[in-house]
Amino acid sequence: MTYDFDRIIDRRNTDSEKWDVKPNELPMWVADMDFEVAPDIRKTIQEKLDHGVFGYSLVSDRWYDAYISWWKRRHGFEMKKEWLMFCTGVIPAISSIVRKLTTPNENVLIQTPVYNIFFNSIVNNGCRALESPLRYENGLYSMDLEDLEENLSKPQTTLMILCNPQNPIGMIWEKDTLAKVGELAAKYGVTVIADEIHCDLTTPGQEYVPFASVSDTCRDISITCIAPTKTFNIAGLKTSAICVPNEQLRHKVNRAINTDEVAEPNVFAVNAAIAAFEKGEPWLEELKVYLAENRKIAEDFINKNIEGVHAIHGDATYLLWIDLSGLPGDKSRMADYIRKNSGLYLSEGRIYGKCGRDHLRMNLASPRSMCLDGLQRLKESIEEYIKENSTS
Q1: Distance (Å, whole) CA 75 – CA 372
Q2: Which of 18, 42, 49, 67 is most buried (most C-beta within 10 Å)?
Q3: Partners of 322 in the β-ladder
């Protein structure tokens, strides 16, 4: 490999949210990567830094071209310049859109288990988070389209947040499934926000389908939030884009993000995104191979070596969804138990919706030695838990 993903970078005492932990603890929770950013992105930031003047920045034509070229080349979806708007992040975008397109006490539908911050964006804006649980059978997830239609048909349901690919389960939604979602949403007058921030982090050979590319219906009812931040590990630079083909929806979204003052870039945000999309592809291709190997190792290790625990296979994200339902007792606070027992810091499944209660989320975007350390800590903690909860 050209890039060294095995190298351990000490992130302690760097004001890292992920690594603000005790000396013996290993954080594998929040979704950022423990890898150095691609050299060409760092070089671009350094050039901006060396310029020495950090005034207000504009969104250049090259920024639009970078997004349009990337999505056309890698995902087969051709966006138009006028569809795109800069935003400081996907979650600021979603929160602004929820505020603009809903009134208090309306339902915003989410398919759980799903990214926990969606709940904040909904509830903090006076709306109700309406859960449509995914169907979970024989260790596999799928959309429950009957339940989805029932909830979309409710008069108070005006907005849906689609996670594509799905965080935390790592599911890539197929084109036919997305088409049905679009048809049902259109039937009941529901606008779909598609959070596609993890779209480039797929297993080599697997490809995600942009929701807006599926059909004219999906295009016309959708607001797509995209970014290079997860893909290239630059979340701290606060850079993203919103794609809205429908002119009326686009006007509302534009007013929303400008009213909330989240439509202006910081001095590094535009150039870093351009560098990522123009020059980051070789780095990404190697990263995807490395992450896929981490995932396979983790899935195999858990399924073969940890009694009562099942790792859900995923083809997207660097997040592993772990099923604890085969263990005895109440597993809803298992992450707390594991952290106290071994220092391994994972995310509680219950924060991703009611159906996540007996699960954990594990971030695999770390050097392999750290992942192996985390898996061993998980095994030892589960073994200790079983001893403490076994009945004789």
Answers
A1: 33
A2: 67
A3: 311, 360
Inter-residue contact 361 to 346 (CB < 8 Å): yes
Which part of the chain has CATH 3.90.1150.10? 26-37+281-389
Question: Residues spanned by CATH 3.40.640.10 within the chain?
Answer: 42-279
- If one counts every other C-beta atom within 10 angstroms of the C-beta of residue 310, the result is 17
CATH 3.40.640.10 fits 42-279, yes or no: yes
**Over residues 309-314, mean pLDDT:** 98
Least Cα distance to 29 among 380, 302, 363, 391 occurs for 363
Residue 392's pLDDT band (cuts 50, 70, 90): very low
Amino acid at 78: E
Model-level pTM greater than 0.70? yes
**Assigned token pair, 237:** 């630079």
A 10 A CB-CB count for 45 gives 18
Query: pLDDT tens across 177-209, in order?
Result: 999 999 999 999 999 999 999 999 999 999 999
Q: Is 169 helix (H, G, I), strand (E, B) or coil?
A: coil
Q: Where do runs of H (alpha helix) occur along 84-174?
A: 90-101, 117-123, 145-152
Distance between CA atoms of 348 and 332, rounded to whole angstroms?
7
Nearest Cα residue to 77 out of 185, 189, 204, 175 = 175
**Distance in angstroms between the alpha carbons of the first and the last residue of the chain:** 52
What is the gyration radius of the CA atoms in the chain, in angstroms?
21
Do residues 169 and 321 lie in contact, with contact meaning Cβ atoms separated by under 8 Å?
Answer: yes
